[in-house]
Fold:
Amino acid sequence: MLKRKRLITLFLGIIFLIGFLLTNFIQQNYVVPIAMYHSVNPNAISENRLEVSVKAFERQMCFLKRYHYNVIPLEELATLIKDNKKIPPRTLSITLDDGYKDNYIFAFPILKKYNLPATIFFIINEVGRSDRLSWDEIKSMQDSGIITFGSHTLGSEPLVNINSEEELKKQIFESKRILEEKLERKVDIFSYPSGAFNAKIRQLVIDAGYKSAVATNPGRKYPDDDIFALKRLRISSPCNNLFVFWIETSGFYTFIKEHRDDE
Structure:
């Protein structure tokens, strides 16, 4: 009888230890997913990682709504992370880069349909191009209350390719000034072109007065709570499969990707 009690105690102890270790692992490796889209169009090519089809985008937004994801504006998420506040389960933010016109034609109506907020980062010098957003479209989306805009610099050149500090400052500081003038509101979020940056660029973004910045996948050397190196997940054709989309938006895909890339 005594031996049996010891075995039960040992078994319960092992279960408790496994539970403790699993909980600790989850807490340490969970990263609130920030979905990164680019073009949303009916003629999306699966080989193009910057495109998703309209059908896939709607299925994904419907999935988030149906399964009660806590989709919040990126600015709100950055504030929660900065203040070290508890973030509810299944929290997620949606971003779209570059300012494609199809964001207005196709993505915007779907986001309105499901009442899901999103942030769009656009390249200022490309506004008004035939395949890019116009200022009227940008203002219309902003007036809806569900779309927030951030800077993706003046041009499309990755900042890490620019050697001149004067030009770097122009891309970072001037884009903020122009956006705030055009949108008549504070612009607090920045997106590094191509997701690439270094310590100098990161500091210039801070000096310009932005409150947070998003990258793509800066790697394990940047902590998950660095609000000027927020890690995002590129949503592309594999996520047409909702199981894959669920995995990528689970909060653990960043951990999987970073360890896979290090191999």
Q: What stands out?
A: Residues 1-30 form one domain. The first strand starts at residue 34 and ends at 37. Residues 15-27 have pLDDT under 50 and may be disordered.
